[in-house]
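# step 3/5: fold
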Amino acid sequence: MTVSRVINDGTNVREDKRRKVEAAIAELNYAPNIAARALAGGEDTRIGLLHSNPSFAYLSEFLVGTLAETSRTGAQLVVQECNEEGKEKQAVETLLKGRVDGIVLPPPLSDSPSVLKVLEDAGVPVVAVATGRAPDWALSVSIDDKDAARAMTEHLIRLGHRRIGFITGHPNQTASAERLEGYRAALEKHHVPLAPQLIVQGFFTFRSGLEAATQLLDLPTPPTAIFASNDDMAAAALTVAQRRGIDVPEKLTICGFDDTALALTSWPELTTIRQPITDMAQQAVALLIKEIRMRNTSSKGVDQPHVLTPYTLIERESDAPPPGDSDA
């Protein structure tokens, strides 16, 4: 009890005893266990993470962020996979049976109407990550996907590209539509004609990127640049180009989105939009824990439930001016 009082700056400890305890702490290099202190104080927090993401690189970075923040705060992390269509309700109920206090939803589940409906009915605190259309009752952390895609498209236009292929993301995510709108807005702003055949469907997977890039490069007049809605599909486009002997970036520029590990392990390294995935995951957990603790002490939640984080356009080796005429 005396040691606890000293560590927590409590009163009713004689000065000589306080000095002895502090000396022992220094000699033993003792540090309090955050999780144990939270448990003893009745503040143990269990955070649920419900995931279903086709990009291993994205999910890995997201997990790093959630683990870092739960470790820092002494919260427990409970991870539940939800990959089977039609089993969303069952996955949510499994988490709730595990006595979680709040749930983090990375994409695409952050845009899933069925998942969000079950969680709303349950009344559990939720933070939706990387969604362009978070419900009013939930917390959210995201970037401005439309503005980020506009910035990348304008970067390509400044390099001289006029035929810019765009690989869209999965239609079940609001970020996909936002990025397509940003691409279109940049073309319109700079009076570059919109060619519908240059927009092809992707699903945020490497395989869908292979198919989309093949479709673009098979056009009678292929694009001089390809902007993919994530790094997995951009890396796939690099693979297609290399198979065909197309030099990147001398003959073809390829850019991605997210700045996952793939952007640095691809060759050449990808020019991309840095979406701070790890930081967003940490922010999401911190926001959720704050909401949970505020609900436990009062009926009022956090003041700013929707957090917009900055993105960065990262220029690397996969982009260059188009070959020959800049109006190609």
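# step 4/5: annotate
Residues 33-42 have pLDDT under 50 and may be disordered.
# step 5/5: archive (pending)
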